[in-house]
Amino acid sequence: MKFKELYGNATSPILSVELFPPKTEKGRHHLDQEMKRLMEYPVGFVSVTYGAGGSTQNNTLELVKTIRSTYDVTTVPHLTCVGASQQDIRDYVKQALADGAENLVALRGDPPRGEASFKPAPDGFSYAYQLVEFLKTNYGDALSLAVAGYPEGHIETRDLDLSIQHLKQKVDAGADLVITQLFYDNQDFFRFRDKAVKAGINVPIVPGILPITKYSQIDRITKLCGARIPGELTKTLVAFPDGSYDQQMAGIAAAIDQAGELLENDVPGIHIFTLNNSYATAHMVTALCHFFE
After folding, report:
1. What is the DSSP string of 193-254?
2. Domains: count for the chain
3. Per-residue pLDDT, 87
4. Residue 75 has pLDDT above 60, yes or no
5. pTM for the whole thing?
6. In this structure, which of 10, 203, 215, 219 has its CB flanked by the most CB atoms within 10 Å?
């Protein structure tokens, strides 16, 4: 089901989750177990990312195909501009369509590790809106597209108003859905949403949530992407040993509170970055299941 139909016909918020292709046999077995657990819940769609520079693109498409055929759930590959020429993009999309894809998450992507700034591939694109334009020009309504939004501003564009302008470019180019980067203060999301609506962005804006189950890990991720963990939440989490059961439970409780407040304030759904671990997701959805009925 395409994003436009999924959200356009929804009578309750949509639950969606993000996974990544495992690199080892052990990781594949673990993900198989995690998927069985996740599919016990009303998941509207599963998105699958890939490694830096497109290093796991083939694995991404294979995982998307496997999940779709095994669980009969809408499954969506990511596509970034990193290292991708226009022909690379055509080849990737051709395979995705042949495998049954109806949606893509279209992103610029982050610079490869060790590079200070983003550099497009020869004949590639520098910005996500260019990728969206290319996809809509070449594939029209065959694909429904999601793009990223940044409630605290993009790490390269700390000006929130400018980030909103960039988002509008992506939506005007043909995006049907916005999925935000992780954030931990809902006021940042509400401010972002208000500004986006005022700017004329009229597609669903879905908050992306990453439960904190190991503080050091998420602290590293937020510093890389320009998000912040509020002081009170940090204080609560660091009171426990890093990655301990008590820290996990505190982080999951905070994610439940965060998602609950968002769902009470008319978001069209929540998108959970699972890091291939259903543990926190299962706790969250169990606590919030009444919103998804």
Report:
1. HHHHHHTT--S-EEEEE---SSHHHHHHHHHHHT----HHHHHHHHTS-TT-HHHHHHHHHH
2. 1
3. 94
4. yes
5. 0.95
6. 215
